[in-house]
Predict the 3D structure of the following.
Amino acid sequence: MSSALECHNTRKTFCVRKEMNEGSILSRVINRLVPKYKIVPAVEGLTFHVEPGEIFGILGPNGSGKSTLIRLISTLLLPDEGSITVFGHDVVKDRLEVRKLINRVSVDAAFFKGLSAMENLSYAARLYGLDKDVWPGMASDILSRLGLEREKLHEPLEDLSRGMQQKVAVARALLTDPLLLLLDEPTTGLDPVSKREVQDFILEEREQRGTTVVLTTHDMYEAERLCDRVAIIDHGRFVALDTPENLKLKVSGNGENVTLEEVFFVLTGKELKYNGKSECVSE
Ligand SMILES: Nc1ncnc2c1ncn2[C@@H]1O[C@H](COP(=O)(O)OP(=O)(O)OP(=O)(O)O)[C@@H](O)[C@H]1O
Ligand SMILES: [Mg+2]
């Protein structure tokens, strides 16, 4: 069976305007009138694969390229170089086929905020051509497993907390029964209970349906709890890729007990400094 996801030497750059805050007034005015641009690499030389049914985590500092990679896999961006395939389908050549197999939850999911959760889900269900006799049951089942109270389902989304809205976003992504679920910081901003509910749900989905999951997170405990393997990305490149256990072993060398957080600090080039209470902080 082919991999759920394969990336070969994937590269994506963005062309951004060069801001000039220094120099003479004349040169700054000229820069405003005739702006200069620079190329910013967002992801570079990424080669990896994800097995069917695997939960694959991507950890990295802000701006390291996590969301760009998720957007490349979900066909929202085109790679400059390299290839990405989802269950054997190329994200550029077989874009529509890939879209049938995946769904994505982003950290800032877009909704019609004046409409309720069920109305938003109804819109998504129609867009995907889902059976109207089937999806409402599926939706309420998913939302109750995620811990969203029934009475919230018919309130305008703008009256729901960010965490509740995030649960609706997860439910929307699951309605299409994706083979590959792309989760970009699915639990950021959630309280500990909601976080655990979403995490349990992700584990259950994999268990029950064999869903392959690629998730980005800043939460090391989440990565450790959920992920079979974790890639650490920095400045658009993977600096490590292994199981959480092996990553910890590699960093500690002698099997000494280290946390994934310490691994992250070491591999992203930041120094570790202990504050005397066995807590580590980055510099
Ligand atoms: N649409 C865009 N236009 C220009 N530059 C972009 C665009 N999207 C991302 N970038 C740049 O690409 C790099 C990677 O950004 P990306 O959003 O992928 O990082 P991230 O790891 O998801 O960060 P965060 O943890 O803050 O979500 C950054 O330098 C960012 O400024
Ligand atoms: Mg991001």
Notes: Residues 112 and 120 are 7 Å apart (CA to CA). Residues 5-242 form a domain with the Rossmann fold fold (CATH 3.40.50.300). The pocket of adenosine-5'-triphosphate (ligand 1) is lined by residues 14, 16, 40, 42, 60, 62-68 (CB under 6 Å).
